[in-house]
Design brief:
Phosphoribosyl-aminoimidazole Synthetase, Chain A, domain 2, five-stranded mixed β-sheet, 10 helices, globular, binds adenosine-5'-diphosphate, binds magnesium ion
Length: about 300
């Protein structure tokens, strides 16, 4: 039984499960989008990660789920479990959290504080116009599939850390400080048919879009957007899994119908962001990855 079988079997009775956020109607024209993510020391970040980076990432991954739905951040709660009181650590954590919260105009409205192994849980809530949220279930046959920026940087950093190597600052930045694509998501409202944030790896997260939409896809390895350093690593090792299944990218993967594809160029220009077409949505169920000659396993907690 893997993570997703477990969720389906024991918690599938929940309402609206299956997207990056749950949507709750609040009045005639608005919906709340709400999400929760936990970060555990040793699982989501290495033991020597700075308080600032832990704070940043805990909020950023939740903002990324709001982005996946096209929601505007409004408020969040923070449940923090600490092994002890370390004033310097807490000051650094608090300041970094406040800085990112301010940047996205999201208010801390409550939480919970307990003692135990270091773990951070944030529940973030945003707002979106009724029936306008970007969903995993909206992909249509013939849609082009896009991803933002580059894939695999954070996964390569994590791999190097585990091999006792020191990643470059650029890779570490992607791993510790992923940028939540809130602005991009806002521009995709009314343009994209479906969207997800890539947290567990492109292969798995795109597969969630396919399963929820009842369609298949064909993507081409050669079109995956890669940074120079990831490209060099793949050229040397032929290990495409780092870009396909590494996880922790926090980029958006979205699909756009041929009639709206002309909007993508102007979004790229307006936001100064790279958006790359990596494939198309097909009638044939399953994810076909052209050029892949290895098996990649995306991240699953179970
Ligand atoms: P994400 O990667 O965006 O955090 P996941 O793919 O991990 O989302 O989760 C898949 C879906 O299952 C989401 O809609 C999430 O809300 C739901 N889910 C995960 N764990 C539970 C749980 N313990 N109880 C209810 N729903 C859950
Ligand atoms: Mg997500």
């Amino acid at each position: 039984m893997d993570e997703f079988d477990l969720i389906n079997q024991y918690f599938g009775w929940g309402q609206g499960i299956g997207d990056d956020c749950a949507l709750v109607l609040i009045n005639n024209d608005k919906q709340l989008a709400t999400t929760v993510d936990t970060l555990i020391e040793g699982v989501h970040f290495p033991q020597n990660t700075s308080a600032q980076d832990i704070a940043y990432k805990s909020l950023a991954v939740n903002l990324s789920d709001l982005a996946a739905m096209g929601a505007t951040p409004v408020f969040f709660t923070l449940a923090i479990t600490l092994p002890n009181i370390n004033k310097k650590w807490l000051e650094n954590f608090s300041n970094a959290l406040k800085t990112l919260a301010k940047q996205h105009n999201i208010a801390l409205v409550g939480g919970d504080t307990t003692r135990g192994k270091l773990s951070i849980t944030i529940n973030a809530t945003g707002v979106v116009d009724k029936n306008q949220a970007l969903l995993r279930s909206g992909a249509k046959i013939g849609d082009s599939i896009f991803v933002s920026n580059t894939l695999g940087d954070a996964a390569l950093a994590w791999q190097q850390i585990q091999n006792q190597q020191i990643p470059s600052n650029l890779l570490l930045q992607q791993f510790n400080r992923p940028k939540p694509q809130i602005e991009l998501a806002q521009s995709l409202l009314g343009i994209a048919n479906s969207c997800i944030d890539i947290s567990d790896g492109l292969e798995q997260d795109l597969s969630h879009i396919l399963a929820q939409s009842g369609v298949g896809a064909s993507i081409d390895l050669q079109t995956l957007p890669l940074s120079k350093v990831v490209m060099q690593y793949i050229t040397k090792t032929q290990d495409w899994c780092v870009a396909l299944a590494g996880g922790d990218d926090y980029e958006l993967c979205f699909t756009v119908s041929p009639t709206r594809i002309h909007h993508i160029k102007s979004i790229e220009k307006d936001l100064n962001i790279k958006l790359t077409k990596i494939g198309v949505i097909t009638e044939k169920i399953g994810l076909k990855i052209l050029g892949l000659q290895q098996n990649c396993q995306s991240y699953r907690h179970f």
